[in-house]
Design brief:
With 599 residues, the chain is an alpha+beta fold. Helices cover 22% and strands 25% of the residues.
């Protein structure tokens, strides 16, 4: 039975034994709760005019705080999340894609968590990280004191899902967004009890597919009319739209729980709450008539709602009409809480704090935004947005004040504007995109100082022979069809700290096939083990409201198997997993390899 979110909140409070008068004096420095949705489009909220959906908590942020009307993110997840955390264009941090190592944020980037941690705040990350798995890319190596969630991005199971809690793999409880919120609430309560200022990053992974929705929301949405349609009209996949909007309403319920927690702890006035999404909608549903969806560099793919509430300083109903972006969040939060932004590397973002609070300097900030151009980039495509115009990836120019759907190219009518923005795009390619190092091979660090373990998920490995991924999308996939001695699985690694490591495989195997002998080798060293006992759980095929898309893997429960210890030399090597004896029809399905340093 699914527990209601109200009961879940009560259970958390009861478990912590918190009384209304138990709180210490509030900390002097403001707190921050930054909430990011995954694949929610600009049009998925009632405050922007969607008449089918109800998002009162998100709407309240818009009414009670500030709205960045033309807030631009990137076309896909990892680049946007890197920009939110660093205040820098994503290629500068090395983020080029969403998987296979291209999602990793360079270790020398200074994140919002670093900034708040160094100022004495306690920092927590809850949910989807998607900027690197191994140390030094892991959130615990990026300024966060605690982490509960997953690092791979796309996740395959939304009920009682496998999660990571500070380096330990655990089973979550209930629906994933509710579970993430539970842990974020517990973190906020603990910080409040200790009178600590905090930075709480709540990085949801919904309404990203798979389209798994709790019963409460799906009961309301299963047969609900969808009043406003996307660009495909009657051909729109209404079941997908209903599932996505049901997931958005679940997010709204969880945001309401977060806001209620701040009120209950008497810290709402001095807590900044930011809400946005990481890219456009993951289907062609209603988005205010904008062109494009997730993956597109047009407005529909990169424009997001962004609300910032700070009752102590931001007046209700504040509107910023000029173009802003994910790169502005770090400098703006630093300005609002009185922290100096990092100076080790130049920021691309603008500090909007004076504009949001009508403080001295607001006119100068407004003047900066008036002439500003923000770039969207993905898959080699580059598009430029100003407050009034967009130059698309094909060089066409649109007046966004009168043509939000990008229907009429006016480049010939405004040649000077088109030429200016083409120069911006060319300079950005030359000075930003083309300066990013592109390794010939992605290698993953093993034994980085401070890391209790190194996780090498299937996403970061390569299949050989008949071995295949369980899905086309590498994130959250596993290796399967391992049946022959010529088959193998490999991980290209860079051993940072040489020494002995315990090798642990997370596997499933039908009991009738148990007993295969496997070897893990690398750099001349080898460890041998046996795949046993058999363990063959079913795939989690029961929770989806809409069939999974092509190439999207299901999940199942994998268990750890210790092979033994292997001694690894410092430097680049390739770890190879093979089977030398196969008594049954298959060897095993493999979710991850974990290496733990032996003291």
């Amino acid at each position: 039975m699914q527990m209601s979110v109200i009961l879940r909140t009560a259970a958390v409070i009861a478990a912590l034994g918190i009384a209304g008068d138990a709180w210490a004096k509030p900390p002097a420095r403001p707190n921050v709760v930054m909430v990011v949705a995954d694949d929610a489009g600009w049009g998925d909220f009632s405050f922007v005019g969607n008449r089918s959906v109800a998002t009162p908590a998100i709407d309240s942020l818009a009414h009670d705080g500030a709205v960045l009307e033309q807030f631009c993110v990137q076309p896909v997840c990892s680049p946007t999340r890197a920009e939110l955390l660093t205040g820098r264009s994503h290629p500068r941090s090395g983020v080029r894609g969403v998987s296979l190592g291209q999602e990793r944020m360079a270790p020398d980037e200074i994140t919002l968590a670093n900034l708040f941690h160094d100022a004495g705040c306690v920092t927590g990350c809850f949910g989807k990280w998607h900027n690197g798995t191994q140390w030094p890319y892991h959130p615990l190596a990026r300024g966060f004191d605690t982490f509960y969630g997953f690092t791979e991005g796309h996740w395959g199971d939304y009920f009682d899902a496998e999660m990571e809690h500070d380096g330990t793999f655990v089973q979550g409880s209930g629906y994933i967004a509710d579970d993430i919120t539970d842990h974020a609430i517990g973190f906020i309560e603990d910080a409040r009890r200790k009178a600590r200022s905090f930075f709480c990053y709540v990085a949801f992974n919904t309404p990203h597919s798979p389209m798994s929705v709790p019963d409460a929301e799906w009961t309301r949405w299963r047969d609900k009319p969808v009043e406003q349609r996307g660009p495909e009209g009657d051909r729109e996949d209404l079941a997908f739209t209903r599932a996505a909007l049901a997931m958005v309403e679940n997010l709204d319920t969880n945001l309401r729980r977060l806001l209620a927690t701040l009120e209950r702890l008497d810290i709402a006035r001095d807590t900044i709450v930011v809400f946005c999404s990481d890219n456009g909608p993951n289907s062609t549903r209603w988005c205010g008539g904008m062109r494009g969806k997730k993956g597109s560099t047009d407005d529909g793919g990169v424009r997001s709602v962004c609300c910032i509430r700070y009752p102590a300083r931001i007046k209700p109903g504040t509107i910023v009409d000029d173009v802003t972006g994910a790169i502005d969040i770090l400098p703006t939060l630093a300005g609002l809480v009185g922290l100096a932004p990092p100076d080790a590397k130049p920021l691309d973002g603008v500090d909007l704090s004076s504009l949001l609070t009508d403080a001295p300097g607001s006119r100068a900030t407004a003047a900066t935004l008036a002439d500003r151009a923000i770039v969207a980039s993905f898959g080699g495509k580059v598009s430029v947005r100003t407050t009034s115009h967009r130059l698309d990836a094909e060089g066409r120019l649109y007046d966004m004040k009168t043509d939000s759907g990008q229907l009429r190219d006016i480049a010939a009518e405004q040649p000077e504007q088109a030429a200016r923005l083409r120069d911006v795009a060319a300079a950005w390619r030359r000075d930003v995109l083309d300066t990013v190092p592109r390794p010939t091979e992605e290698r993953f660090p093993v034994g980085y100082p401070g890391a209790a373990l190194t996780e090498l998920p299937a996403r970061d490995g390569l299949p050989h022979g008949g071995v295949a991924r369980s899905g086309k999308a590498p994130n959250c996939s596993f290796f399967t069809h391992w049946t022959k001695p010529d088959d193998s699985i490999s991980w290209a690694v860079d051993v940072i700290e040489p020494g002995r490591y315990t090798a642990e495989l997370w596997y499933t195997c039908p009991p009738a096939d148990a007993g295969s002998t496997v070897t893990l080798s690398g750099g001349g060293a080898t460890v041998t083990g046996t795949i046993a006992p058999g363990w063959d759980p079913p795939l989690n095929t029961a929770d989806d409201r809409v069939p999974r898309g092509h190439g999207e893997s299901f999940s199942k429960e994998f268990r750890p198997l210790t092979l033994g210890s292997i001694t690894l030399e410092k430097g680049a090597t390739t770890l190879v997993l093979r089977a030398t004896q196969i008594p049954g029809a298959s060897v095993a399905d493999i979710r991850r390899l974990v290496l733990r340093p032996v003291p």
